[in-house]
């Protein structure tokens, strides 16, 4: 069993794990404990990024302030249960391992290991439990998994996701396996930080002091991508509660084709009077046929035109048909031409001459978000998940989990072709008549 507590700063995540660790070491489980119980003495590992951090954080929470021998026993493990302590060579005040008295009369053992020591230091051991304070590199996490194979052990991680969407974080957020659990905790879950729905003065001061791009991570435990975020806006800045779209607002749908990576779709509504674009629905599904995708999108409105990218012109090897064709046959109102940026009429450009520059399209979306003219219905959870991790690395866009965002980008590129419900019949006839195979 593996559990991840991905939480905000200062909500008690480290203390909670240190307390569980003390339960497993001593066998003194409280009556209310519903988690795993070991009936005999245990062998466990407490892991952290460096020897210094595991000493200052994990060791301190378990056994007391490392720099003050008089504080031994002021952590979650009572002094009366602390046995032989083995020092870690070369690290002041650090324990390499500690024996802890178990209720059976025998001795449990806790070892301290740092990720910086490399995976070799974690090889070969078999443990009943492992506490990882701060997320481990994937190769270290793999060693912890291996270490519990024969013991049916438990692993639990506690951290604030400063490293962003790492492979380990992604596996829990997007692909939970049987026997795994992800728990989140925010400032609002801690009464010393939020009271009566309002930040305490201390929390408010911290919120204002944190850089804007860190606030979601610090206060909510949302994975951070740092200054590399392409759309560095909080959910609160973009989100609106769903409402009935007026019939005179123009709408358009965007598609991003996919099979092994998810197919994505987004529906946009455009309030021309205030020039605000709303993302009102989203859809994402991998390894499904066009009929499945079309069935999910058709209820959005069969009269709404659908924008699609250049790869819609690619042909299937088996049939020779263009990728967009099945969607037309399934009743979607596919625009007759691939998505392009708006033409510059001042330069004599005509429809289709605007090109399909991703950077230009992203800049247009960014400007709308920055000026409050891009809003997203709070129900569009996939859109927000992708927005939170959409980033650049070494100046290049990282094209991972961007399917719904890409779909909304294609729709926005073709916003000039959005149509209102009041002209749906005439426009549908025009689009269908313009489609040739």
Could you explain the architecture of this structure?
The protein has 437 residues and is an alpha/beta fold. The protein has two domains: 2-185, P-loop containing nucleotide triphosphate hydrolases (Rossmann fold, 3-Layer(aba) Sandwich), CATH 3.40.50; 238-434, Nucleotidyltransferase, domain 5 (2-Layer Sandwich). The chain is 27% helix and 22% strand. It has helices at 13-26, 51-63, 138-147, 167-174, 201-209, 215-220, 235-238, 290-297, 325-329, 358-370, 381-387, 403-413, 424-434; strands spanning 2-7, 43-48, 82-87, 95-101, 107-114, 129-133, 154-159, 180-185, 194-195, 198-199, 239-240, 250-256, 263-271, 276-285, 305-307, 333-334, 374-377, 392-393, 396-397. The chain has an eight-stranded mixed beta sheet with strand order 3-4-5-2-6-7-1-8. A seven-stranded mixed beta sheet has the order 11-17-14-13-12-15-16. The radius of gyration is 27 Å and the shape is elongated.
**Total number of helices:** 13
The count of DSSP E runs of length 2 or more, i.e. the number of strands, is 19
Query: If you compute it from the alpha carbons, what radius of gyration comes out, rounded to the nearest whole angstrom?
Result: 27 Å
The CATH architecture of the largest domain can be given as 2-Layer Sandwich
SSE-based structural type: alpha/beta
Q: Report, as a whole number of angstroms, the end-to-end distance.
A: 54 Å
**Domains counted in the coordinates: how many?**
2
Shape: elongated
β content, as a range?
A: 15-25%
Largest sheet, order of strands side by side?
Answer: 3-4-5-2-6-7-1-8
The CATH C-level class name of the largest domain: Alpha Beta
State the CATH topology of the largest domain.
Nucleotidyltransferase, domain 5
The profile of the biggest β sheet is: 8 strands, mixed
Tell me roughly what share of residues is in helical segments: 25-40%
- Mean pLDDT level: 89
Low-confidence stretches: none
């Amino acid at each position: 069993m593996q559990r991840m507590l991905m939480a905000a700063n200062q909500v008690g995540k480290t203390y909670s794990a240190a307390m569980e660790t003390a339960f497993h070491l001593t066998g003194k489980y409280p009556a209310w404990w519903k988690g795993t119980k070991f009936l005999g003495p245990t062998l466990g590992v407490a892991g952290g990024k460096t020897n210094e951090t595991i000493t200052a954080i994990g060791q301190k929470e378990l056994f007391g302030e490392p720099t003050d021998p008089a504080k031994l026993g002021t952590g979650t493990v009572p002094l009366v249960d602390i046995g032989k302590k083995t020092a870690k060579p070369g690290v002041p005040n650090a324990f390499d391992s500690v024996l802890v008295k178990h209720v059976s009369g025998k001795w449990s053992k806790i070892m301290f290991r740092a990720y910086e020591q490399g995976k070799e230091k974690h090889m070969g051991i078999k443990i009943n439990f492992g506490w990882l304070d701060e997320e481990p590199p994937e190769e270290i996490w793999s060693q912890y998994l291996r270490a519990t194979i024969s013991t049916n052990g438990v692993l639990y991680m506690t951290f604030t996701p400063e490293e962003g969407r790492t492979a380990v974080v992604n596996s829990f957020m997007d692909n939970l396996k049987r026997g795994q659990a992800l728990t989140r905790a925010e400032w609002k879950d801690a009464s010393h930080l939020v009271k009566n729905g309002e930040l305490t003065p201390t929390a408010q001061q911290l919120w204002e002091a944190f850089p804007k791009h860190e606030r979601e991570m610090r206060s909510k435990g949302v994975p951070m991508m740092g200054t590399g975020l392409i759309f560095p806006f909080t959910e609160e800045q973009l989100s609106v509660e769903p409402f009935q779209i007026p019939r005179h607002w123009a709408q358009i749908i965007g598609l991003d084709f996919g099979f092994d990576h998810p197919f994505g779709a987004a529906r946009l509504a455009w309030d021309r009077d205030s020039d605000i674009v709303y993302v009102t629905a989203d859809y994402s599904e991998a390894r499904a046929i066009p009929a499945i995708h079309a069935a999910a999108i058709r209820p959005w409105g069969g009269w709404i035109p659908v924008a699609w990218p250049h790869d819609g012109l690619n042909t299937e090897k088996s049939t020779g048909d263009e990728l967009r064709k099945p969607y037309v046959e399934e009743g979607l109102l596919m625009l007759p031409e691939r998505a392009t940026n708006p033409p510059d009429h001042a330069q004599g450009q005509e429809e289709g001459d605007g090109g399909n520059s991703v950077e230009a399209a992203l800049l247009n979306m960014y400007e709308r978000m920055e000026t409050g003219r891009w809003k997203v219905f709070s129900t569009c959870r996939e859109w927000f998940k992708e927005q939170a991790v959409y980033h650049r690395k070494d100046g290049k866009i990282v094209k991972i989990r961007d399917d719904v965002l890409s779909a909304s980008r294609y729709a926005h590129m073709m916003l000039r072709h959005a149509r209102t419900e009041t002209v749906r019949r005439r426009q549908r006839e025009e689009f269908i008549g313009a489609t040739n195979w």
